[in-house]
Amino acid sequence: MIRLITDFDGPIIDVSERYYRVYQYCLQKIQRSDQQVKQLPKEEFWNLKRSCVPEKQIGIISGLDEVQAQEFSKMRRQTVHSEPYFQYDTLAPGAVDALLKIQQAGVDLVVMTMRRVRELDYAFQKFDLNRFFPENRCYCLSNHYVKTRDIDDKPLLMARAIEELPTVADTWMVGDTEADITAAKRHNIKVIAVECGIRDRAQLELYNPDIIAKDLMSSVDLVLGG
Questions:
Q1: Euclidean distance between the first and final Cα of the chain, in Å?
Q2: How many DSSP H helices and E strands does the chain contain?
Q3: pTM beyond 0.90
Q4: Would you say 190 and 4 are in contact if contact means Cβ atoms under 8 Å apart?
């Protein structure tokens, strides 16, 4: 039996529009009424995010001063995972087809995400994803979990999954961030990093995943082929 553990945001859900809307909102809230700012086009903004340019720097590039950029960064963190903005998430192209393909192949499919229970439930219902992930194959944060850093929190989720899930012959992890790669490597699980999420190839390469693939479907083909 093969097991595929997949991250949610990135491989399955495209969060770029949510992040961009929050960027627009925070920029508008922070700028002074008499101040000219430069709202970045979505593609430029997303490229900065994917190459790990700090929020504060994105604020400065957009025309905020040093103090404003600090406030912008703080507001962005407080807003990006708030309920009104989850409506802007969309399915990543080809993600549902990839999930169908791996499910039909009889692979044990697990989702592992830094979303809270209510945030994952919202997306499951909106996009009809419950059919792929029974409750005992969902690893996420409780609604009241106090987050530290994803790169610290995600390996803890992985440890819990390894302890609870039945043993299988072969396990793969698919994710789009350093947290996914770190969580897998710490527990000796093969990891495929996908380029369709919030990190670009150069950032992913820094953490030495086993494979870098285009998206979830490419990852599924690799797992089934390998």
A1: 13
A2: 10, 8
A3: yes
A4: no
